[in-house]
Amino acid sequence: MKTNISLVCRRWGWLRAAAVRAGWHWLLLAGCSVAWMAGAEPAWMPFAVEWRDQPASAVDLSDLIDAPAGKGGFLRIRDGHLARPDGGRVRLWGVNLTMAAGLPSSPEAASIMAGRLAKLGVNCVRFHFLDRPAPAGLIASDREDTRALDPAQLDRLDRLVAELKQRGIYSDLNLNVGRTYKAGDGVRDHELLGFAKAATYFNPRLIELQREYARQLLTHRNPYTGAEYRHERAVALVEFVNENSLVEAWFNGRLLGRNTTRNPGTWTDLPASYERELTAQYNQWIGREFPVEAVGRWRREAGVAAGAPLPRLRPDEFGKASRDRFHAEASFYLEVERRFFLGMRDYLRGELGVEPLLAGNSDHGHSRTGYPQLAGTALLDVVDSHVYWQHPRYLTDARTGRRTGFDIPNTPMVNSPLQSTVVQLSRSAVAGKPFTVSEVNHPFPHEYAFEGIPILAAYAAMQDWDGIFWYTLGHRDVVSAEPRIGGHFDLASDPVKMCQLAAGALMFLRGDVQAARRSIERSYTPDQVRESIRLPASERPYFTPGFPLGLPLRHAVRIRSFEGPETGGFEPAPEFPIRSDTGELTWALPAGKEGWVAIDTGRSQALVGFLRGERQQTRNLGVELETPCCAVTLSALDSQPIARSGSLLLTVCGPVANTGLAWNSERTSLTDWGQSPTTIEAVRGGVTLRDLEGASRVMRQALDGGGAPLGKAIEAARSGGGWRFPVGEPATTWYRLVVER
What we know:
By secondary structure, this protein is α/β, with parallel strands linked by helices. The protein contains 15 helices and 32 strands. Strands 16-17-18-19-21-22-32-28-29 form a 9-stranded antiparallel sheet, covered by helices on one side. Strands 4-5-6-7-8-9-12-13 form an 8-stranded parallel beta barrel, surrounded by 6 helices.
């Protein structure tokens, strides 16, 4: 029988690919149903997210958003959180727009994007990689330098910002992200710098060019809003640099001066001339800050002559270096970062008069410590972090340096709660500072990506964070793109993540999930901050010996200080299942390692993970599913709790794939990314709504990729005091439920 099923699957895969090439989508529908009925494989069905057409959506969360953005003034900080000028709390639920995705091709496309995002509850977008040459970014590409902005590209940005503002959606403008330099820029060894990460902190010419770019962009007047960006109330944040840290480059071995490759890309070692420049600055600094005797002792330790420059430590020398030499060099990098952040702050605030809030960089590498970076970024208005669940590891050809593929572990996060995105991100929040996550995702083609948005939305609300930005809506104009997931991070064509954005907005923006009742605070001495660099990888992600990694699943967690006293003495680690101190969130990890998360609040409830067995229910939601691992969310679309609501949003989500996508034998990489349209594995089984007060009838309406009705509404059947209805037919990721009384 297994052989026959395998043959059926292979033949169906061939037939499906042929059907797509021929445009016979009716054959896809019929074939998927036959395959499911035969028990061959889960049913994969076409389910495209179209952006060009804008049908009336049955789900419209624009009422969650206060339009226009900034109507009462600039976002400010009150009691350590983002707030309106009147003091009302603000949270940001956002997406990134990367390169051309933030520069839509037409006014109509800008309007479509803004309207769709508002309906999904998105109230902020992060404009990322704008510092690329046109047409991907704003920098004029017809010059021998990168010192001018393209007027046509600026106009595209201006139109979109205006459309977003009108609908209550704020903007986050990034400054230095992916700029590469040309001969006319006056940048030494420009062709060897790549994105110039690390060098942007200490090289005077690169700092000068960053300030020049900031002036050009932030003093530009948007003709559609009438304001310069430095005075634009709809700009929530301005970020200085992206995933760029001098101290991180040090402990990751990217300050060695060995790069000789032209146009080397993102993560690259410094060219030799920049290594010499940095070493000279280091020697000048230690000469001012430390006694001659100490510097002489370090020279002897390094084996260099008296008066010769002291070489900087390589990562493979950290362990054997004397404590005072190691800490002196670490202090230098922290000081350079601090000086850069404060200098940029003073330039933007003092010279340019920039009024939006400022953020410096993100804590983004959770396999190593982040505290040296956070000690600098916490000097600014907002603290930020990035994380990805199992970011692809890119493979390159050793001879050519070209990327040849990727691999991922492809394992569920629900089975690894102590290394989850929740726990990794929680290490970075600082008491008294708004905390945002400006990049996060479960990258495609991960087969458990459906777990990412609902879990993080709930725990981010419990942790009382201020903003979540999913990376990324797209890298190209999303309105004109085909309905196919073309990259690891693109959301616009992903039918699961797009519908889950709405469910997450309800949990996070509306405050459906309560903030934790207790906050666990810790502090670090400057020595601890520096010494965390030498801690082993086994201490990840907190790099705080003795810290129980289960605590962020129970309580809020914050850093009180980077100036001491020494942190320690934590409460015992909680045992699984771990419940939040509000009682609303539960993370279970049974002995079989098939984990699940339950979210149980008045207005939003969810079950995520391995949902087999009768254990899976919340106060109003029960599931009996044939699909072993999936995510089900239920939220009131009105202001009432689920028990009394007349309109509900139900999402039922499993894996997503492009048509014809093919995994390798280990299911850790792809041999074929597949074609359009995107397909979903239809989650099948039954859902029961319980304890609906006074309900006389419940209607279930399946929705298509744009939120319009799909097929006829069906009436739920009464079942043991509840209302039960099937899911999976027609294949969809979301439903609108109407409760009549």
